[in-house]
Design goal:
The chain is of the alpha+beta class. It is built from one helix and two strands.
Length: 49
């Protein structure tokens, strides 16, 4: 069952399954656009001393 939102004399039902699908799609899109992290917990870039 979805959540009900009451706005004055209007009542809306929120489709929670639709919201979850949209959040998952946005999360997957963010993961595609994020650069990969360094392996073994080391920073990328200049060497260490």
């Amino acid at each position: 069952m979805g959540r009900l939102v009451i706005d004055g004399n209007s009542v809306y039902e929120i489709d929670e399954a639709c919201i979850r699908r949209k959040e998952m799609q946005e999360k997957q899109q963010r993961m595609k656009n994020t650069p990969p992290k360094a392996q073994n917990g080391r920073r990328q870039g200049r060497g260490t001393r």
